[in-house]
Input
Amino acid sequence: MKLYDYSGAPNPRRVKIFAAEKGIELELINCDMAKREHKSDEFLKKNPSGKIPVLELDDGRCISESVAICRYLESIVPDPNLFGNDPFELSFIESRNRHIELELWTQIGTSWVNGPIVGSLGIFDQIPDAKTASDKNVNAYYKRLDAEFASSKFVAGGRYSIADITLLSAIDFASQMVDLKPQADLLNLARWHKEINKRPSSNS
Amino acid sequence: MKLYDYSGAPNPRRVKIFAAEKGIELELINCDMAKREHKSDEFLKKNPSGKIPVLELDDGRCISESVAICRYLESIVPDPNLFGNDPFELSFIESRNRHIELELWTQIGTSWVNGPIVGSLGIFDQIPDAKTASDKNVNAYYKRLDAEFASSKFVAGGRYSIADITLLSAIDFASQMVDLKPQADLLNLARWHKEINKRPSSNS
Output
């Protein structure tokens, strides 16, 4: 299976960490976002949304969206389980994963597209007020996470799941590329990050 | 099972349509958003994100996030299948559902929070430029959908799925509450809407 990837992009990283946890080897294909290859006619046939990652199966069928790709990998290699083992756990992990995506990732994304690196490309009309609001939302969400990690070892309770992968990728991208590193006094969040970062998969 | 609901809110509607397709009866509990009941201490115990819908099981455990609730319902009542039957279909339907959520719903949401109804509540600092951009993105996405429906009967190919429920709820909310009705010349999108709207579940 081929994974269309771009070094440093946070969403392909989610799939690479997930695959590493499963021991699945993926052939990485560089899709050069700096050259806008993800918007080329050829790539839009693989994913009409023009985004990476895309997983291309050996028969040529393609799957887009990180979580959908991870669910495919979970279906074909069930262990270790990262999505949940019974109806309640399946839905609980999904809800936690979605909280991180919809309440943190979206805000980091808004700060990113309205920030200096994307600004220097001159592709989008930027909205400075949107970045001010999303920066504030990101920092408020970090505080919420810190409070949650006071009583919860992982994002979805007592065990590692796809929701931890989603949060790790979000925080690392925000810290390295958007100048939104969590405040140093959020000790529970820092403890979680340190533990997750030790896993060999996190080097993906 | 109890569903925390608010009449006219689009996300609880997604769950109500999904449950109607499955023939599952849910006890609807009104969570009065106008009175900010979704932000009360009592409700935040059910969903720390302070959002509806929430499904409360008979043993008191709660599940938040529409898609996570629907996945729980799919697990306990598998037929008719609405999430996919095999690894590829499961991931394909999820990817399509996510395209609608991440590329259309998020933009409708930005137009909503920066629009006149929310503005009249005086709760948020609104960003008019953000609404201008999201209105444009919504209309561009409607055009993309219209092109896709030229060769695809449903959102995820040849059969009805959760992705159609997501799109119906998005378009109806955008049309009725955000003044973002699809342009009348998008005939394929209109055909899809008319067909989906005929299903008894769509009255939910």
